[in-house]
Amino acid sequence: MITGLSIVVRFTAMRQDRRPYWVKKTYLKFRYWYAEHFLRPACDELGAHHTIMKPWYVDINGPNITIGKCVTIVAEKYSPVKIGVWGRQPDSGKISIGDYVLLSPGVRLSASDEIIIGNNVMMANGVYLSDSDWHGVYDRTERDEKVTPIILHDNVWLGDSSIVLKGVTIGENSIVGANAVVSKDVPANVVVAGNPAKVVKHLDSSIERVTRREYFANPAEQAKYFDGLDRMVLEGNGFFNWLRTLIKPNNKD
């Protein structure tokens, strides 16, 4: 019902990462520079310690967009991540994304008035949130005057290709199954699935949650750990062998 989410994402289509350590470090520095240079100015706030994979496939448009610290955004060429505010008036509407949030390839957030996303929220591939129908049923030149914000509380997990419609609030720790369409509020500590989404399971609220906040508890130490891991794994990779894999890969690569 719910697809898995992995923190580790392959950088190439190869079975093995054949890049020399310095090549990967150069790529990571460029990736970070790109996000800082092009995506930070598109936000009112972009928190520290972000990890934005392939940031050239992240599209951020509109005013009043804030993103918290330690966000992970994974974008792909044919599954870009799109975050957009199209307010009723200039400089109106907002999207607020909390700390430690994960946005997977193909996620789309479209706000007419307000989308609020709490801390530690995880969104799988192809998730779509929209707080408006954008056109009336009878008058298709205007939006409905009623404001219908979307609110996701802390630790919500949205499964693959799920859709959250206007006016929905999802309670803390709740999970939305793959391909579900959520049209009504979801209480805390439940799993919902289907179209329209209905409660299929209640979660034990007494069990302590381990969230992305714990994973990113010390970002500097975490970065140091992964740098050491890269150095160890990529240590024996030669530059010319890596070039060969780009031109003529084999089934050992």
Automatic annotation (TrEMBL):
Looking up Gene3D superfamilies in the UniProt record yields:
Hexapeptide repeat proteins
Recorded GO terms, molecular function?
tetrahydrodipicolinate N-acetyltransferase activity
Q: Which CDD domains match?
A: LbH_MAT_like
SUPFAM superfamilies cross-referenced by the UniProt entry: Trimeric LpxA-like enzymes
Q: What class of enzyme is it?
A: transferase
> Which superkingdom, per the lineage?
Bacteria
Q: Which Pfam families does the record cross-reference, listed alphabetically?
A: Hexapep (PF00132)
The answer to whether keyword Acyltransferase applies is: yes
Q: What is its EC number?
A: 2.3.1.89
**Is Magnesium given among the entry's keywords?**
no
The protein's matches in InterPro entries, at most eight in alphabetical order, are given as:
Hexapep (IPR001451), Hexapep_transf_CS (IPR018357), Hexapeptide_acetyltransf (IPR051159), Trimer_LpxA-like_sf (IPR011004)
Query: What are the protein's UniProt keywords?
Result: Acyltransferase, Repeat, Transferase
Name assigned to this protein: 2,3,4,5-tetrahydropyridine-2,6-dicarboxylate N-acetyltransferase
